[in-house]
């Protein structure tokens, strides 16, 4: 495709589009396309499938922030791709790996409940869409010390892993007024001060003041988080240094006083798997995807089926799955999906995630998504269908949020017998819903050792007669 662009055209891409750096599978560049609130029309999905075919070898991934990830992007064709995305109304993450210092961070795609507005009438995803539009390409917020992640939900469950976000917003109703309780300072990578779950600010932010509140918090990150090095440049470092009370004071200096809110939040664990009924009597149906891996043809099938059996809208989920909404006949949709996809009846296939380490060069053979497939295979072998959550990160950056799952793996490379080998550390007992961090169970396992150990642990679990939470408490008490 020959697209001619003048300098005026190119200026519309500045601060809104960026190629990321890949270092594996022969890919030099990736695109992480922001899909606001994970909502995408069938028509737009068809076009992204075409972009994947033409520029990305027909491969695509759903990320755990409701983005679509394309790889093998030729830098010489970047402006062509940007133009195609611009016409769709989509932007990309502003990936800052190419800059040596703490600069040019942006507000990443704001994750929200994939069923916002469908299962309850407080639709927090609308705020995610508006905030994403405001921050994307906004020059006031395009040079943050480092990226800033926001999660928002009002469905009563932690379907977006609230605790791992720089800013998490929990929608509630207080005496008939809608608003949000914010948590701040989450981030589970090893940047300073280390893995940290978001802390409750214990305030109530009325929905009418949410926009100003979020701008104030992101502005504090921009103006006060350290730029001394990338390792010190996440917002959690400032929250750890200042404390929640000081952050609150500075926010209130900007936007006015906020009301205390100290009631327990009591979030549930529902992440809207399988099928269910919407408020309007129609249905939703979630298609599980191991590691979010798709190809262009499967993107087309998803778009086609959403038009045939729903309203032509698809929701991408924070667990790397696809949810069909406004479905009239669930059985007809299921029948159509079975021809192209695996439909699993295990909760673990819906709730487990794996990062894209094969492309960023952080792992050798066996990559994070491969390990996810191996671990899910162990559950299938033992007939375990309940909600066992497995999160796998390829490296200490913790893109797979391994610290907040029942079982987490994090990859690393070490020297053994004069060669560099791929190993994994196994963590157990985390739970994002309880803001509970997992504990290291065994370190430096070869991939086959990790799978074998997990097999042994699941065998013990099956015969224990205990609930998963009870079993994990015992397991963590007898670490070898």
UniProtKB/TrEMBL annotation:
Assigned keywords, A-Z: 4Fe-4S, Heme, Iron, Iron-sulfur, Metal-binding, Oxidoreductase
Any one Gene Ontology molecular-function term assigned to this protein's record: ferredoxin-nitrite reductase activity
The keyword Metal-binding is assigned to this record: yes
Keyword Oxidoreductase: yes
E.C. designation(s): 1.7.7.1
SUPFAM superfamilies tied to this protein: Nitrite and sulphite reductase 4Fe-4S domain-like, Nitrite/Sulfite reductase N-terminal domain-like
Residues in Nitrite/Sulfite reductase ferredoxin-like domain copies: 27-86, 277-338
Domain Nitrite/sulphite reductase 4Fe-4S per the UniProt entry, residue ranges: 106-256
Recorded superkingdom: Archaea
Protein's name according to its UniProt entry: Nitrite and sulphite reductase 4Fe-4S region
């Amino acid at each position: 495709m020959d697209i001619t662009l003048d300098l005026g055209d190119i200026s519309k891409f500045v601060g809104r589009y960026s190629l990321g750096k890949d270092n594996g599978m022969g890919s030099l560049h990736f695109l992480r396309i922001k899909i606001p609130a994970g909502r995408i029309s069938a028509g737009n999905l068809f076009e992204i499938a075409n972009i994947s075919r033409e520029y990305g070898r027909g491969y695509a991934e759903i990320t755990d922030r409701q983005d679509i990830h394309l790889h093998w992007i030729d830098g010489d064709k970047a402006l062509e791709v940007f133009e195609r995305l611009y016409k769709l109304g989509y932007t990309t993450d502003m990936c800052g790996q190419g800059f040596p210092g703490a600069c040019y961070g942006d507000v990443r795609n704001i994750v929200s409940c994939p069923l916002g507005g469908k299962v309850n009438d407080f639709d927090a995803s609308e705020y995610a869409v508006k905030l994403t539009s405001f921050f994307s390409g906004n020059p006031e917020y395009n040079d943050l010390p480092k990226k800033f992640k926001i999660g928002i939900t009002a469905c009563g469950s932690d379907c977006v892993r609230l605790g791992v976000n720089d800013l998490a917003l929990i929608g509630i109703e207080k005496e008939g007024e809608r608003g949000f309780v914010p948590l701040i300072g989450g981030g589970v990578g090893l940047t300073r001060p280390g893995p940290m779950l978001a802390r409750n600010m214990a305030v109530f932010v009325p929905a009418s003041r949410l926009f100003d509140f979020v701008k104030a918090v992101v502005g504090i990150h921009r103006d006060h988080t350290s730029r001394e090095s990338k390792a010190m440049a996440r917002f959690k470092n400032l929250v750890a240094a200042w404390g929640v009370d000081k952050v609150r004071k500075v926010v209130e200096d900007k936007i006015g006083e906020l009301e205390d809110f100290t009631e327990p939040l009591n979030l549930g664990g529902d992440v809207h798997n399988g099928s269910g009924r919407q408020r309007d009597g129609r249905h939703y149906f979630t298609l599980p995807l191991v590691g979010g891996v798709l190809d262009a043809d499967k993107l087309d099938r998803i778009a086609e089926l959403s038009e045939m059996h729903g309203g032509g809208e698809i929701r991408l989920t924070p667990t790397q799955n696809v949810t069909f909404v406004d479905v009239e006949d669930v059985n007809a949709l299921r029948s159509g999906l079975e021809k192209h996809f695996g439909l699993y009846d295990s909760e673990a296939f819906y709730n487990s995630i794996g990062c894209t380490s094969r492309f960023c060069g952080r792992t050798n053979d066996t990559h994070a998504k491969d390990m996810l497939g191996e671990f899910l295979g162990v559950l299938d072998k033992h007939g375990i269908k309940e909600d066992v959550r497995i999160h796998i990160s390829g490296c200490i950056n913790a893109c797979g949020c391994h610290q907040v799952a029942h079982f987490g793996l994090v990859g690393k490379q070490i020297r053994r017998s004069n060669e560099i080998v791929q190993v994994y550390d196994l963590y157990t007992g985390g739970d994002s819903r309880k803001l509970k961090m997992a504990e290291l169970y065994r370190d430096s396992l070869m991939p086959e050792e990790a799978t074998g150990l997990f097999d042994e642990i699941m065998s013990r679990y099956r015969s224990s007669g205990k609930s998963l939470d009870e079993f994990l408490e015992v397991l963590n008490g007898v670490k070898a």
